[in-house]
């Protein structure tokens, strides 16, 4: 028999599936994200689902034969002896609702009769998994890098070949199978620096401040590692936006840092109020030492694009309160709404003059996973650090070197993102056509998502200005909805 919890989850998924069936076009957009009001109850559910086997695991003894004598040993590593901070980690993106979705999908495949025929998983921004096609030029160069014999093949355009030769030239033994420098291949870091300069209207970028990473996640966690210190009331607090992207809460739990929540303003299209930052900071200072402020712009899961004024205000706030800024800008090409524009924190910082540009410490992050690329599986990314203390920077370089290097194919892909085909090159036309097609499809889907969600009784949704998600509010008054809300498990969103 299914538990009450499982039944309510099933009902919610049935609702999603019905909606999906009805609005298939909308939900196929890219992907959707499930939101859960209360992560703690989610984790409790998770624990209860795995509880039985966990308890058993601790007790199970293994038989070992030594010199013919059978000895029984308890496990060295049990749920009670393992790292306690890992147990505190919660990650809804791959949590129990997703597991339930997999289960329902399996049941459907096995012929179970349900009031729907398909489950569209809405838990993660994984564009290719939802059918988005890769950019031809990127895959051509990556194919050439992986199998250089293809450089003799006439089917590949010359610009793809010359790009592949350049990347291979930067690799040890001219192979992407070799380790690279820990900070990333030098010519790729140079390309990233030139890209940042072009993007930011000429603000200089030193390739030495660029660290290639294993997706943006790796860069973010590495920075958090550097920031977290202290004990008790002096333990580092990290300010993160709520609604949040769960990488942050998960990483903070693992590092045993203090998560300091600041709330985005739903009434004002998920904008960021400085008064809320101030409130959150002052409350946190009573029990920890807040040292960094994380901003996601364009926002996941809320889809807002911060105005230039807002970014300036945030930088002023960080300077006044002596906070390290972390700007998660992985959606920098995903801006759809009229009147909205992406402004990088770095550019705004430098436009504010030396009082800020010479002092405010900033790390910004980008990725191959989002924008028009959607190449999540290659795990490409970079971070740029500004005004970092040279001794800390040396520690950062040491820290990244422990893991040798980010995946070289991911580095190669990052290079292509920051250095795509140029006008006049053979691949430029196709590249632009494919890139623009993805971005305009995302823009159309963003609008459609907002419009359709707003037609559902009890659901309201802000305009999706950017990124790949919407975060609707559910005010459904049905009995199951009320019960779920009480349990903190109401599904309140899906999206782009
Ligand atoms: C805001 C934000 N930051 C970071 C990431 C992680 O990106 P990556 O795949 O580059 O690690 C994501 C992924 O969805 C994201 O939405």
Automatic annotation (TrEMBL):
Belongs to the class-I pyridoxal-phosphate-dependent aminotransferase family. Alanine aminotransferase subfamily. Its cofactor is pyridoxal 5'-phosphate. Residues 152-472 form the Aminotransferase class I/classII large domain. InterPro entries: ALAT1/2-like, Aminotransferase_I/II_large, PyrdxlP-dep_Trfase, PyrdxlP-dep_Trfase_major, PyrdxlP-dep_Trfase_small. Homodimer. This is alanine transaminase. GO terms for molecular function: L-alanine:2-oxoglutarate aminotransferase activity; pyridoxal phosphate binding. PANTHER family: ALANINE AMINOTRANSFERASE, ALANINE AMINOTRANSFERASE 1. Pfam families: Aminotran_1_2. Keywords: Aminotransferase, Pyridoxal phosphate, Transferase. The lineage of its organism: Eukaryota, Metazoa, Chordata, Craniata, Vertebrata. It comes from the Eukaryota. SUPFAM superfamilies: PLP-dependent transferases (SSF53383).
């Amino acid at each position: 028999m299914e538990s009450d919890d499982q039944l309510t989850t099933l009902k919610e998924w049935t609702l999603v599936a019905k909606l999906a069936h009805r609005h298939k076009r909308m939900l196929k957009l890219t992907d959707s994200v499930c939101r859960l009001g209360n992560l703690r109850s989610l984790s409790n559910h998770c624990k209860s689902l795995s509880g039985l086997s966990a308890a058993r695991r601790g007790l199970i003894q293994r038989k070992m034969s030594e010199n013919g004598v059978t000895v029984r040993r308890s496990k060295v590593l049990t749920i009670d002896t393992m790292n306690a901070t890992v147990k505190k980690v919660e990650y809804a993106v791959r949590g129990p609702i997703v597991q339930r979705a997999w289960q329902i999908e399996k049941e459907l495949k096995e012929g179970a009769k349900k009031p729907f025929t398909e489950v569209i998983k809405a838990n993660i921004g994984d564009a290719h998994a939802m059918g988005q096609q890769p950019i031809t030029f990127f895959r051509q160069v990556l194919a050439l890098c992986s199998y250089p014999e293809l450089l003799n093949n006439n089917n590949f355009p010359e610009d793809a070949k010359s790009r592949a030769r350049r990347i291979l030239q930067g690799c040890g033994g001219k192979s992407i199978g070799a380790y690279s420098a820990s900070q990333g291949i030098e010519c790729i870091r140079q390309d990233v620096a030139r890209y940042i300069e072009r993007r930011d209207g000429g603000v200089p970028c030193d390739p030495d401040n660029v660290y290639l990473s294993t997706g943006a996640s790796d860069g973010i966690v590495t920075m958090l590692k550097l920031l977290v210190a202290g004990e008790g009331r002096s333990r580092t607090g990290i300010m993160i936006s709520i609604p949040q992207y769960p990488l942050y809460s998960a990483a903070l739990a693992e590092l045993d840092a203090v998560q300091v929540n600041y709330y985005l303003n739903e009434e004002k299209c998920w904008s960021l109020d400085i008064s809320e930052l101030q409130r959150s900071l002052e409350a946190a200072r009573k029990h920890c030492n807040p040292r960094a402020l994380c901003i996601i712009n364009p926002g996941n899961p809320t889809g807002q694009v911060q105005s230039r004024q807002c970014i300036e205000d945030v930088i002023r706030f960080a300077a006044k309160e002596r906070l390290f800024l972390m700007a998660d800008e992985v959606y920098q090409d995903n801006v759809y709404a009229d009147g909205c524009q992406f402004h990088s924190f770095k550019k705004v910082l430098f436009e504010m003059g030396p009082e800020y540009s010479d002092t405010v410490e900033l790390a910004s992050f980008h990725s191959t996973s989002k924008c028009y690329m959607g190449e999540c599986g290659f795990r490409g990314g970079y971070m740029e650090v500004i005004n970092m203390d040279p001794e800390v920077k040396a520690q950062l370089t040491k820290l990244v070197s422990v893991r040798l290097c980010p995946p070289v194919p991911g580095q190669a892909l990052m290079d292509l993102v920051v250095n795509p085909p140029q006008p006049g090159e053979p691949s430029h036309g196709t590249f632009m056509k494919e890139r623009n097609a993805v971005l305009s499809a995302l823009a159309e889907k963003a609008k459609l998502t907002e419009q359709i969600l707003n037609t559902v009784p009890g659901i309201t949704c802000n305009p999706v200005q950017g990124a790949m998600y919407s975060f609707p509010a559910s005010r459904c008054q049905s009995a199951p909805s009320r019960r779920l809300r009480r349990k903190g498990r109401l599904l309140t969103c899906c999206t782009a």
